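Technical annex, item 7. During the second reporting period the consortium partners agreed on a shared format for inverse folding records so that results from different sites could be compared directly. Each record opens with the tokenized structure and is followed by the designed sequence. A conforming record, contributed by the partner at site C, is shown below for reference.
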């Protein structure tokens, strides 16, 4: 993509370096997201060699000489993932340095090539002659064709049965929670810590903590984020267990693992709102202030689900103020009640 077009459509092209921090990781996360449409081009230096999975990447461009075989394998690995449902069955290597030509000539890397094509060109760059060389798989000692990857194929152990282990006495705890992502062909496996995996998925949805906060404060947008994370296997209970913070707000858990933000408990958020935004409560009548404070206390104990209207109006202690119609009258109408509860949530996540 030329520079003029890149300037006109900056969302399509991103350059990420380690100095970009959370915003850079957010762009990287969106580039990794198989459902995201932007960015389509990501340029960086030595940040895509290890630990970054890009299932739909179709082009890997080498703009510097790669001298290490292991580093070359890692870079090329960004494109070897297969995702049939997204039409990802191939990828290109655009090499401006000659590294690919030199390092691919290694039978131990990916086995011997099935077919070699050799072309001879004239001074004008036109193809004069093309030779196709078919390479037959080598035979093993039994005379059968070996179609392995240069390492002798797969060798089964003495027993393929799973073993059961028993532990008597002492204490047992989970040392780490890992996520394995397997390609559709079952050949490429990526293993990352569950918390790192969750952070990647959060950054794919929101580039920064302020962007996540703005969406989280809106009940409808918050529900959408929760649903999309659930579809990707992100559980707030698992994140709370990993952080050893069962009382933490889900928003703080997401910010902590995605953007390295400090963790707060739900009660800390509630107390901060009570002390710093007294003006919000004072604009309502005494009974309305009491209902809002009760909603805030229910949030501190059980979470943001306590803000769902009209369900929360049907359970104590809010229901002690009367029927739903009676509570609506306390606030001067259904719209004012809904507005007060929404503002309560916005202020709750304002900082």
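Designed sequence (site C submission):
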């Amino acid at each position: 993509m030329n520079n003029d077009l890149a300037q006109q459509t900056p969302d399509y092209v991103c350059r990420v370096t380690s100095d970009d921090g959370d915003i850079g990781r957010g762009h990287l996360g969106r580039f990794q997201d198989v459902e995201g449409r932007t960015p389509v081009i990501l340029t960086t230096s030595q940040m895509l060699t290890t630990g970054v999975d890009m299932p739909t990447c179709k082009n890997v461009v080498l703009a510097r000489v790669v001298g290490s075989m292991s580093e070359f394998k890692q870079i090329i690995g960004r494109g070897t993932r297969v995702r049939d449902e997204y039409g990802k069955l191939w990828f290109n290597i655009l090499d401006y340095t000659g590294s690919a030509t030199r390092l691919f000539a290694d039978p131990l890397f990916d086995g011997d090539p099935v077919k070699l094509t050799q072309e001879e060109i004239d001074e004008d760059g036109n193809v004069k002659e093309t030779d196709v060389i078919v390479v037959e798989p080598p035979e093993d000692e039994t005379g059968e064709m070996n179609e392995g990857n240069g390492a002798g194929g797969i060798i089964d152990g003495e027993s393929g049965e799973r073993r059961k282990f028993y532990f008597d006495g002492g204490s047992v705890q989970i040392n780490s929670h890992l996520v394995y992502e397997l390609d559709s062909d079952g050949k490429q496996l990526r293993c990352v810590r569950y918390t790192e995996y969750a952070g990647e998925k959060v950054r794919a949805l929101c580039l920064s903590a302020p962007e996540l906060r703005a969406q989280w404060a809106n009940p409808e947008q918050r529900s959408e984020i929760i649903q999309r994370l659930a579809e990707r296997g992100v559980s707030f209970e698992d994140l709370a267990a990993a952080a050893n913070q069962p009382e933490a707000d889900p928003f703080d858990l997401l910010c902590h693992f995605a953007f390295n933000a400090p963790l707060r408990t739900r009660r800390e958020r509630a107390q901060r709102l009570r002390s710093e935004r007294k003006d919000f409560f004072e604009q309502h009548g005494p009974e309305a202030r009491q209902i809002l404070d009760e909603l805030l206390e229910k949030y501190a104990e059980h979470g943001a689900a306590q803000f769902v209207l009209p369900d929360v109006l049907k359970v104590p202690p809010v229901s002690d103020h009367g029927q739903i119609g009676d509570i609506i009258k306390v606030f001067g109408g259904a719209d004012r009640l809904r507005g007060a509860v929404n503002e309560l949530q916005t202020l709750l996540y304002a900082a």
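The two ends are 40 Å apart (CA to CA). The chain has three domains: 3-109, 176-261, 265-351. All partners now use this format for quarterly exchanges.
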